[in-house]
Amino acid sequence: MKYIKVNKLTVLLAFLGTVLIGCSDDLDQPELNNNFAGGTDFSQTDDMIFSLIGVYQSVADRGWEQPLVVATRGDDVNAAGDQQGLKNQDRYVYDNSFFGSRTLWETYYGDIIGAHTGMEQIERYMEFADDEGIALGNQYIAEAKVLRAVLLFQLSQVYGSVFIPTSSNLNDFADVTSVPSKDEVMQHISDQMDEAIPFLLDLRPNERTDLPGGVTKYTGLMIKAEANQELKNYQAVADATGEIIASGKFSLFPDYYELFKTPGKLSDENLFEFQYSDFGNGEGDRVSHLYAPYGPNSWNPEVDGSSNGWGFFEPSLKYIEFMLDRGETDRLETSVFFSQKGIDSLIATTPYTSETLPSFVSPITRDGDENTSTVRSIFSSGKHYLPTNQLIPGRTAYGSNKNNIVFRYSETLLMYAEALVQGANNSVMTADEAVNQVRARANMAPLSGVTLDQIVDEKYAELSMEWGKRFFDMVRLGRYDELSFDGRTFTEDKAFVTYHQDQIDEFPILGEIAN
Q: First-to-last CA distance in the chain?
């Protein structure tokens, strides 16, 4: 079997997303996925890679509301705008009719089932493959397991108890009598990564030439570490993150501001990112994500004609004041896109004045885009902002061509440090060394004898606005007071979002679970 070199991953993703993957939007359409390969000639084993590419495409093809349902809780971010269901969720008032929670469940499960379909297709190709083809098939199946795990991990973080599909056969869900707990889901993910990692490439994702940015051994290790962090199995966290660190393959992107923009795409820091592209062209095909919910609903862009956002996702005043009090510069400028109304609010509600605020606290970014929003949101997420001078000429959509980073090396370092102070052992570096690498990139002074509280604060500064990581940390650590802010009251029973009524109607067992 020939090794197929695929350099333009996103071109293939754009095409294959419509013709290869026939994922279900629901879990109530038995056998829908089992025969989507119709007349496929599985003896053409060189085509096996296309089954994998279809899985990559479906996993990256997220609707705008799904990442917000995952991320919009916690003291780093506020839900804004006119999506009342999202605003209720942000205040821990869960609405079982909110369309966002329904589509999160349905599309994630559709893509998880699609991953199983892809794996089953690859297994059929392997029946006709030579030894090289079998080895590739095992690698591709392992990659699909990791992609599936990313979605299942986020689903369980949001809902707690969720189903664990083991094949594409939807009849498996016809008579379910129990739903695995969150701990059972996380253990399943950890076990799945143990199965997958031996078959994955020993490369940094951006070192791959066949599928640049694709899953590697280190992506699998990161998912394993994340799952075990949720389980509070800190030795397993230290082992997995320690192996990533010891590889010497990863480093922090030197410019924190540009990490989340075009220069940071497929950087040496990124262990996994959802990839999108305009293919360098101002018109025609593109693979995109709708970033408008994160942007200001009015602005004066540096590049005329560039579209504004919707104002649905707003950094919290608590987070901004926390960062100012720490003397943060690069990370605060990067994370928050200020408006003048937001700055006025800072001056009115904090000890800061126009004279004592740093100069970068400005409605105009260093790239010349001005946030003029006065309604919906008065701050916008800088991590989801792409300067208009980085748009491909001819493209006007907010954030067009921007990747969405899911896991990065700075989080690896901070998870490792936390695991050590939580009692785990590893000699690849000390907790101080791990934390101080992250702080040095942010131009923050080094720490000595780092404590859990300091690491928690460092994660707050480094990872806020990224996939709800702050919220899930506070729940895991039982720091509920941090989540009770600005009129909110968080209690342990609010850790998981309520299942949508459509899911309860389809699977009554869900109605018996106390969320």
A: 50
